[in-house]
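Lab meeting prep.
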Amino acid sequence: MDPSGTLSDGLDGDNVYLVAARGETRIGFVSLTPPWVGRYSLDKYLTREELPVLTDEAPFEIRVLTVEPHWRSTAAAAPLLMYAALRWVAARGGRSVVAMGRTVRSGAVSFEVLSGSVPELTRTVAERHGRILERLRTRLDWRLDPPFAPQADGCEHGGAFFSAIGTDFRTLTRRHEVVAADVLDAWFPPSPEARAILAEDPGWAARTSPPTGAEGLLAEIAGVRGLPVESLLVGAGSSELIFRAFGRWLTPRSRVLLLDPGYGEYAHVTEQVIGCRVGRLRRHPRPHRLTPRRSDGAAGAGVSRGADAVMRDGQDDGQHLPTPL
């Protein structure tokens, strides 16, 4: 303790602090040490040989969970701070966490290193404490950058890939270690001619926006393929085309039948963005055919009969676009 009466630590300047408050009154806080700091508080007590998880998994360390004495009788304070720490770590691509736990028995204190997988802890929290978290969510002014709850509708193409890498620029080196399996990026390198043109003046390319309507690209494709420009539509992948097309085809009064599992944007756009009436038909891995009798069993009474659209994806024919009826 220094003359000012405060305790300090060499990691204080590198740690991230999440704070819970009621108005201007601080209730508690929790500290996080990101792996890019290069050291942990646990290094003061154990070697990396004794604790290989620090080197092998590059975890985030959760430290100094503190709740003000007046608020310790509030059951939600400490769990809320730990949950906030888990969400913050997950949003930065963290795959594991470590912490020093302690147990007090008859005045004797025992310390134990705790570690866990972020995805497993997230599932456990949702299964065991989902109702409590939902009550808290309605009462909180949540100011962290990640959303309070993980996205649940499956519309995360590319999201899981960058969650594994980490959205912080300092973790982009992980891109060489992660296989992108949640988004269909091109599996071939860009055209040598295109790379050569971009390399001529990368500064101009980096600060200049392309034509909004991609007129030049459309004209080139039309000329090469011998098609009228009016028959072409370009977009940044299937997801953008789904957002644009569904907004033209469907309204909140539309009835839609989704074949699950399917492309995540189908459920996200129809339910969350447009607000359609949606029914679901669960598919099995083996080859199948959609028949009127089978569609009658879809979850969502009244949707399968007279549906305005049936959403099917590339499991059948390599296409992501829906089939309007």
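Slide two material, second protein:
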Amino acid sequence: MNTPTNVRPTVLHQWNVSLQRQVGDWMVSASYLGNHSSHLWIGTELNPAVYTPGATTSTTNARRVLNSLNPSQGAFYGTIGQLADTGRANYNAMLLTLQRRLKNNLSVLSNYTLSKCMADPATTELTGPTITDPNNPGLDYSYCASDRRHVVNVSLVYTAPSFSGKVTNAVFSGWQVAPIVRYQSGNRSSVTTGVDNARTGMGGQRAVQVMDNPYGSGGESAYLNVAAFAAPAIGTYSTLAPFSIVNPGSLQNDLAITRNFQMTGRKLQFRWEIFNVTNHLNLGAPVTALNNSNFGKILTAGSPRIMQFALKFTF
């Protein structure tokens, strides 16, 4: 990666405003969170191939800019990544929180986030060019790959009280149950052609969306509709922005059950943790390379139900 001598450092501005209100045993708050980043590092190509009628991928190096300017010397140069500090990113979010401090052996913490993240494709000195069309870098400014519009978190902790009966107290007191539920809408993927349609030697070229609704049945066998996309004409780029596809959301429900046994100067703790209690199927991202025979299908998924047990002896 070619690095200029005067690269400016990345600048981050953050701001927020929050309102809080006590309602009985509950704390209610509403917040706005925002930030803007400038001078992010992006990577562009200094020596792309220039399309000419009849061009093929086998003639890419012969059609590169430096080779056209000076065939005797330019032939020794292939791709040249150029680092630039012109990238930017924006994040805006509303955060709603509902909290109940421990009372009557129960505490609750829940929140909901509605957010939007937009950015240029970032790079490092090792990543190489990330801008698809060197002549139109603004086309790659789009949603962040990690953009998740909705996120909900709910966590509770319940501690069993003491009981008057000796046997009842020995069996049922000291237990603690702590469920955690997290739902988040899907992150994002880009639909790519998988080939060099533009004949410029650049990777990550995107498909053309020809239907308003790009989604199929929504199941793992047809999450995307293959008929909704087509390859751009040879020698051209698609105007479809990156990360235009919202992947499936996920629901994670975990549970921890603990019991403390008090001894003279010692303590024994039993812990039972269950991840994905309901064994909910969380689908992964679909295949988004148009030249892949599995295009639109989802071939991965999150972890199934997993349990683990632990004993801790403190002395």
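Talking points for slide two:
The longest helix spans residues 166-172.
The helical segments are 65-69, 71-74, 166-172.
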